[in-house]
Amino acid sequence: MLDTTGTRFSHVKPADTEWKGGGLRDFFLYKDLGVAEATHGKVIAHLVKANEAPEQGTGWHRHEAEFQIVIMTKGWARFMYEDQVTLVEAGDCVHQRPGIRHFLFDYSPDMEYLEIVGPADFKSIDVDPVCEVPAPTPWK
Predict the structure, then answer these.
(1) 18-126: which CATH architecture?
(2) d(Cα 27, Cα 66) in Å, to the nearest integer?
(3) Which end of the chain is more exposed for a tag (fewer CB within 10 A), N or C?
(4) Is 23 in a helix, a strand, or coil?
(5) Which residue would you say has higher pLDDT here, 139 or 79?
């Protein structure tokens, strides 16, 4: 079948890209998987991992995105999705429907997840608090 989407083939090995700061959250590190470039910005796929202990968390926010999934590859994270505490553990997959208000407030030191979002230049918008958020678990 002929590809008429204009996207390119991409194959990124672990050593091809480095973990970098400067992403959406200062307390995480990000590893680009080459998908945004290959899809001309239609989709981004990156690995995200804990870099600092959770103190403030992400705060309440929503994303302007058409599609978003998180696949936890290591460790765990606790999110508030609207008013529900949700524990996401290694192997879990979460589809975050467009516009869902959420707050990542706690995670393990070894937390790492794959995030796939479309479009690649999605926006994160702060929102008013939905409810009280539990305290994070202190790292030892």
Answers:
(1) Sandwich (2.60)
(2) 25
(3) N
(4) coil
(5) 79
